[in-house]
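Sharing in case it's useful to others searching the archive later.

Someone asked me privately for the predicted structure of RNA polymerase sigma-70 factor (ECF subfamily), so I'm posting the question and my answer publicly. Question first, with the sequence:
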Amino acid sequence: MNIASDPMSDRDLVSRVANGDRAALRLLFTRHHARVYRFVARQTGSEAMADDVANEVFLELWRQAPKFEGRSEVSTWLLGIARFKALSSLRKRKEEWLDDDDAAAVPDDNDTPEVATMKTDKGAALRRFVDALAEEHRTVIDLAYYHGKSVTEIGEVLDIPVATVKTRMFYARKKLGEALKAAGYDRGWP
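And my answer, the predicted structure tokens:
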């Protein structure tokens, strides 16, 4: 099956998974595994835990596909499952934390070395500041900026009202801006 030309929507694939179609599950895994993995890695700070949890999410998809009601996008549903499983895993075990400085250092090949270094430094600082936020603020920032979720989708993933998402976003942005300013970083990129 050619994934690039496959016209099946995610919802159609979930319906097929509900009927026991393993090929549909593999296609959903191919489409969404990287996003789920990155989300869990940022939530837990552990690559090993992210790998385990991401795989558990797709096992849960296999089990829960018949119950999917289609009230949200499949990607939002999967991230909601991932968040729950990540929080459960964090409660169950402690592991060595991922070095965020290494994870955040991804230079742009088109930039000069100076600009790339400035971006790397500011990106690492921003990641540290995001990680230092309270869990409720860190999660909304992660879903909005690293996963491109809308305020409504974030509310669905976290099972909270949209107004609460907006309030958390406001305070998270304010705290990040204050932290960047205190560290001597100007607004804008780099």
